[in-house]
Automatic annotation (TrEMBL):
PANTHER family: THYMIDINE PHOSPHORYLASE (PTHR10515)
Cofactor or coenzyme needed: K(+)
SMART domains: PYNP_C
GO CC, any one term: cytosol
Top-level division of the source organism's lineage: Bacteria
EC number assigned by the record: 2.4.2.2
GO terms, molecular function: 1,4-alpha-oligoglucan phosphorylase activity; metal ion binding; thymidine phosphorylase activity
Family matches, as InterPro entries: Glycosyl_Trfase_fam3, Glycosyl_Trfase_fam3_N_dom, Glycosyl_Trfase_fam3_N_dom_sf, Nuc_phospho_transferase, PYNP-like_C_sf, PYNP_C, Pyrmidine_PPas_bac/euk, Pyrmidine_PPase_CS
Enzyme class of the recorded protein, top EC level: transferase
Keyword annotations: Glycosyltransferase, Metal-binding, Potassium, Transferase
Protein's name according to its UniProt entry: Pyrimidine-nucleoside phosphorylase
Length: 433
């Protein structure tokens, strides 16, 4: 097999065989096929697309380029949730204990945040003592005992994806549905769960800016998952404005606690229920999505979900008393209000820019090496569609420095007030096949 022939084949719009795709990914991972040939192939895929079969094969070739996590020692159907990334997205913190409270194993591998999006591990580390540096045996043991554990990313997972993604980044081939879908799904599949629930975000704060693109990506990923034997569903949700009120690590832990008690922000709660019911259904614990939703509401109502969050914190070395005493979470030194300059209705809160404002305060990382301040962040006092009077606070800044002029300016530039506005649609589509 010669790489040049395979590039020509894809350039001419033909379908690559399973063997050809494996040859390319294996050769590239071993540095036997050079970047320039893979660049040309990526561009051909960008223009000529891939069939569902090719996409599934590409995904599995990337999975097989490195280690995979074996979760077979964990009893039950393991369901993982993945978000394509957003601002103030506190859903994992809520969903993990919520679903585990229904005896569904949550064996979560998580990462840290970068840029305007936060990471689950950073948020959990806002709880004193909490750590994710546990070994594989302890991880499995915790999930079997209490149905929930979170571990940091480790091992040599999907090395082909790391090389490909870096190459695509500099060859204008990131924005290709088959390449994005196989990249994301390969990482989820290598992480070992039996079923996958995807939260595909759309809007300013999301990777997919339009609803049409988000739908195409969601359908592509669901199809890959189901074609390679992992039951997969997706929700397409709004990320034009941040999710919930809190953006920042300790602030989001508090918001998750509120939501587990049934008193969280409406949008966060609705999205958690939409994703959670798919997880419960895919774990074979309910015979319909409606029944699954009732089960989730029940464990919020009877306190089991909150208790599960406490057990989870204790198991991983954290101080679970923060659940009843959230004032024990890291607190910022200064609370600074940002008053509305005019009366009207909030028409826009630009998610990525507001996420960047929180990052500038220290809540997120500008680069992988940055250190973060777990106490700081932003609390939205208004969401899109809310009426506001001049002088009322739009946002409360939680800061550890007194001078936050540039943050205030960014907030004003990215919250628009108009005469009329409606709240955005939160869930655009539920993708079940
Ligand atoms: N996120 C990924 O993990 N891969 C892509 O290709 C794009 C976004
Ligand atoms: Ca939030």
């Amino acid at each position: 097999m010669r790489m040049v022939d395979l590039i020509a084949k894809k350039r001419d719009g033909e379908e690559l065989t399973t063997e050809e795709i494996n040859f390319i990914i294996e050769g590239y991972t071993k540095d036997e096929i050079p970047d320039y040939q893979v660049s040309a192939l990526a561009m051909a895929i960008y223009f000529k697309d891939m069939t569902e079969r090719e996409r599934a094969d590409l995904t599995m070739a990337i999975v097989n380029s490195g280690d995979t996590i074996d979760l077979s020692a964990i009893e039950g159907v393991k369901v993982d949730k993945h978000s394509t990334g957003g601002v103030g997205d506190t859903t994992t913190l809520v969903l993990a204990p919520l679903v585990a409270a229904l005896d569904i194993p949550v064996a979560k591998m998580s990462g840290r945040g970068l840029g305007h999006t936060g990471g689950t591990i950073d948020k959990l580390e806002a709880i004193a003592g909490f750590h994710v540096e546990i070994d594989k045996e302890e991880f499995v043991q915790l999930v079997n005992k209490d149905k929930i554990a979170v571990i940091g990313q480790s091992g040599n997972l999907t090395p082909a994806d790391k090389k490909l993604y870096a190459l695509r980044d500099v060859t204008a081939t990131v924005d290709s549905i088959p390449l994005i879908a196989s990249s994301i799904m390969s990482k989820k599949i290598a992480a070992g769960s039996d079923a996958i629930v995807l939260d595909v975000k759309t809007g300013a704060g999301a990777f997919m800016k339009t609803v049409e693109d988000a739908k195409e990506l969601a359908h592509a990923m669901v199809s890959i998952g189901n074609n390679v034997g992992r039951k997969t569903m997706a929700v397409i949700s709004d990320m034009s404005q941040p999710l919930g009120f809190a953006i920042g690590n300790a602030l989001e832990v508090k918001e998750a606690i509120d939501t587990l008690q049934g008193k969280g922000p409406k949008d966060l709660e609705e999205l958690c229920l939409a994703l959670g019911r798919q997880m419960v259904y895919l774990a074979n614990k309910a015979s319909s999505l409606e029944e699954a939703e009732e089960m989730l509401k029940e464990v919020i109502h009877n306190g089991k979900a909150l208790q599960k969050f406490k057990d989870f914190i204790t198991n991983q070395g954290g101080d679970a008393s923060v659940v009843d005493h959230p004032e024990k979470l890291p607190q910022a030194a200064y609370l600074i209000e940002v008053p509305a300059l005019e009366s009207g209705v909030v028409a826009e809160i630009v998610a990525d820019e507001i996420g960047t404002a929180a990052m500038l305060l220290g809540a997120g990382r500008a680069t992988k090496e940055s250190t973060i301040d777990l106490a700081v962040g932003l609390m939205l006092n208004k969401k899109v569609g809310d009426p506001v009077k001049a002088g009322e606070s739009l946002v409360t800044i939680h800061s550890n420095r007194e001078n936050v002029k540039e943050v205030i300016q960014m907030i004003y530039e990215n919250i628009r007030i108009a005469d009329h506005a409606e709240p955005p649609v939160l869930i655009y589509e539920i993708v079940t096949e």
